[in-house]
């Protein structure tokens, strides 16, 4: 039972719903551990498990950061140890490059960056080193052979032991090419190896280069010849997270080029695919309607619109999607907009998070109570229709509520997480920068846990400030040196010298440099509990200000 009054900013109904969501998580999580671990996923109708995406104990990796968001640091710590001992990427398995990146690499990176907050004893040099970071890097290196194509666009599948199979199809969906920059850039910044960010950028730009004359991209492309195989353009399945990562990559990396690319796409999307606040599928070269269909995966779009400050349009589209939810108690995979009904053989709802994700973002931006109503409806629907003795089952058909014997790992990674954050306004994920930690690394001080988290497309949060912990650009170092010299000259104190810090990427020499010798690697201090010298004032990086209240500040605002 929940005791005592709700916390600050938390109404009693929200508190009650938050605790219901917590109970949903543990009903699913505990049955996974009991009946399915170490398999990837739980089969809730038969109370057993199955490997689906590569035999990684995937649900455990996907659920790890959700544990901390729900406040369970002790289980987080236990699972970290289990994963270090039990997960092996040197296996003869054909794995999806896309899914392995967003679920495994993304989940491990997020857990790595949250480890200290969860009370894990981190090693010297963290967050620039650590066992979960090494696991994420190992998994990502297994994916690199897929990017060795004439275009730089990756194959969709790779064998973790042998690389790309000789007979592998060169046809990959757009999202499977353009959904790497968040995880791979984070890896490059933390490890010092630029190869990850380089291949992700090359793939993004290859798609941009091959857009049509009217500014649209299709659904599937040949990564060898760069010829479009499926020419349907839209914002849903097969394309979705490419657009998402242009925006989130721009925020994470403070990259104007990525944002300008998205804004150009956004113009074409509005011109050719938007009708009455719905988004249809059109032919990428002509702009003619090919499918007047709403796909459940498109429901991320209002949340993405809120990130660029287009809140009014986002709310109108969200309300369209919400009417579909209320019609069926969930979002069918395909919904025929003119007919107002499901599409044959696409009537299922696998407990996807996208509409709840958009509700969470929009509620942060507007505090509109309608968004909480969606959260309430989602909890009621999922519990009433999907809950079984061993977890929560995919809904095979929303018309008659038949179930399928599968619980996808994203249910714990995304659906539960976004529901919980919708009903928990005081969660540390919503930090506005008023609280933060100062961490001392071999490269100097950096600020962490100040908020502005970037969720990857599997809802694994990345702290953007962490990307600045493991390197110092020369121009930044010189600017600091100039300020220090000016300060000391005005104070007329004793003379001092500062050596230029080595560039990021100079390997162990950088880590062992004399500049870092006076810094105790791994020393950790909380900003509220320690006083800083005049020369160690923590500053909030520009990128951590970008996502305040769900907005991105563009040059012209």
From TrEMBL:
Keyword Zinc recorded: no
Start and end residues of each stretch annotated as Disordered: 498-538
Names of the cofactor(s): Ca(2+)
Function: Involved in the endoplasmic reticulum-associated degradation (ERAD) pathway that targets misfolded glycoproteins for degradation in an N-glycan-dependent manner. May initiate ERAD by promoting the first mannose trimming step of ERAD substrates, from Man9GlcNAc2 to Man8GlcNAc2. Seems to recognize and bind to exposed hydrophobic regions in target proteins.
Basic and acidic residues bias spans: 500-514
Protein name per UniProt: alpha-1,2-Mannosidase
GO molecular function terms attached to this record: calcium ion binding; mannosyl-oligosaccharide 1,2-alpha-mannosidase activity
Organism for this UniProt entry: Certhia familiaris
Recorded family membership: Belongs to the glycosyl hydrolase 47 family.
Record keywords: Calcium, Endoplasmic reticulum, Glycoprotein, Glycosidase, Hydrolase, Metal-binding, Unfolded protein response
UniProt keyword Endoplasmic reticulum present: yes
Active site: 99, 240, 333, 354
